[in-house]
Design a protein that fits this description.
The chain is mostly helical and 315 residues long. It is built from nine helices and two strands.
Length: 315
């Protein structure tokens, strides 16, 4: 309780943030959560996963890279850079908590804000386990999936911040169509899970050391790719059906636009996935694939969140 009082006193010393400042802060949270997922996959495709072989230190006795005969400087820089991105994520998460607490936003918004630093700590622990276990495929998969969950929460936070605290709840999407949005979110989760399995069985292990080979998922990658692709087609089909449904019930134009943009992103993701598989999974396209996955996750979360919004009382 005493800590809570001191925290509120500290918050009261800050200038009261404008609604625009609150939205910008929430947008930065979304951006940094997505960016750290992309830098994480860059670590993987450049085989820099053990560029810093210990955690939380980079090397025993040093938190920063040091010249080492067995670890290339490039790999150290890439892995250390990804670790430094964590501080940017923490900074924006802490800023969201301070800004939204100072603005005295409703409890719902504050809960989502506090989930950001809490989940960042969890993600740091998972990252440490991933390094200490030698990049076991399932720890890497969990690491990415938690990142996508954090992108989802950050996108919902962004939508909630833009709604008035004294407003009244109102459906933007009829209940059956909002249920369809939730179902599409579940299918997206399955797409993401199978995507991590494809990567776990693929050529990018995160480290190419002959002395300490990284264990891979021993499942035929073609089978996993077909399963992943089938789920993506199912997800895209749900979005197309949702788009037609929104048009049929004359949903607000911004909601229809979000659904349309999201469907376009998913279609583009499918094309990228086919191309990267056919030409041997180049590193650049893997990074693009993950960036699109983060954008699609954020878009799906925002579409779901806007289904039940808050509008000013006079409206």
């Amino acid at each position: 309780m005493a800590i809570g009082r001191y925290f509120l006193r500290l918050v009261d010393l800050l200038p009261e943030p404008s609604p625009r400042a609150q939205r910008i802060t929430a947008a930065l949270v979304v951006a940094t959560q997505a960016l750290i997922a992309v830098t994480g996959v860059i670590v993987r495709v450049t085989a820099s996963g053990l560029g810093c072989p210990t955690w939380p230190q980079c090397f025993p006795g040093s938190f920063v890279p040091v010249p080492h005969a067995e670890v290339a400087a490039l790999h150290q820089a890439v892995e250390f850079g990804n670790r430094m991105m964590t501080f940017l994520v923490v900074l924006t998460a802490a800023a969201a908590v301070l800004v939204l607490t100072r603005a005295r936003r409703r409890r719902e918004v504050l809960v989502y804000a506090w989930l950001m630093p809490a989940s960042t700590v969890l993600q740091a622990v998972i990252g440490g386990i991933t390094v200490l276990t030698g990049l076991l495929w399932w720890t890497v998969a969990v690491h990415l999936l938690v990142s996508m969950a954090m992108v989802w929460l950050a996108a919902v936070l962004f939508v909630k911040v833009g709604q008035p605290d004294d407003g009244v709840p109102r459906r933007q999407i009829p209940a059956p169509l909002r249920a369809l949005t939730a179902v599409s979110g579940g299918v997206l989760a399955a797409v993401l899970v199978t995507g991590t399995l494809v990567t776990a069985a693929g050529p990018h292990a995160g480290d190419k050391s002959i002395e300490r080979p990284v264990a891979r998922l021993e499942v035929d990658i073609t089978t996993l790719v077909h399963l992943h692709g089938a789920l993506l087609i199912c997800y895209l089909s749900l979005l197309v059906a949702l788009g037609f449904g929104l048009a049929a019930v004359s949903a607000p134009r911004p909601v229809q636009l979000r659904a349309g943009v999201l469907a376009a992103l998913v279609a583009l993701q499918g094309v990228v996935g086919i191309v990267q598989f056919e030409i041997g999974v180049p590193a650049v396209l893997v990074a693009v694939h993950v960036a699109l996955a983060a954008a699609i996750t954020a878009g799906t979360a925002a579409l779901w969140a806007v289904g039940m919004t808050r509008v000013p009382v006079e409206a």
